[in-house]
Design brief:
Number of strands: 5
Strand content: 25-35%
Order of helices and strands: EEEHEHEHH
Helix content: 40-55%
Low-confidence stretches: none
Largest sheet: 5 strands, mixed
Shape: globular
């Protein structure tokens, strides 16, 4: 039986948080924060991870407005995700990411992580939350 991992992405102009699932797609774990120096570079990096970790689906955060509508940021995320999907041949599913950064911050504070360290961890924790939400919804 062939197992594939899922990937979570918290896309940002400066940093991209990346999370990966275990092979059974039960648990999401923070993987890395990638410094975003340009769309093509970021897509190539993510495609290399997709190949290396045998990823077959990506859960990408979609920043909706508080009333649930999509604004300019959502369009930027969709454009990146659609381009990534086309170039990698991997399905990208968009997950409402409202409040994931706040949830990630709460987790890090509760874990006793100091403020300076939280900034470098928050994006991959947000990606983990996005991916875990997708995994839970898929199973539920």
């Amino acid at each position: 039986m062939q197992y594939h991992r899922k990937m979570g992405i918290d896309y940002g102009d400066k940093r991209i948080g990346i999370a990966l699932s275990d092979a059974l797609c039960i648990i999401s774990s923070p993987f890395e924060v990638y410094k975003n120096i340009g769309e093509d570079d970021a897509i190539n990096h993510i495609i290399n991870l997709i190949k290396e970790y045998d990823v077959d689906e990506i859960a990408m955060g979609l920043p909706l407005n508080m009333d649930g509508t999509e604004g300019e940021r959502a369009l930027i995320h969709r454009n990146f995700g659609d381009k990534l999907s086309k170039l990698s041949n991997v399905k990208v599913v968009y997950i409402d990411e409202r409040l994931t950064s706040a949830e990630a911050e709460d987790i890090l504070i509760a874990s006793g992580v100091r403020r300076e360290k939280r900034k470098e961890l928050i994006d991959k924790i947000s990606a983990q939350i996005i991916l875990q939400t997708y995994i839970n919804n898929k199973r539920g």
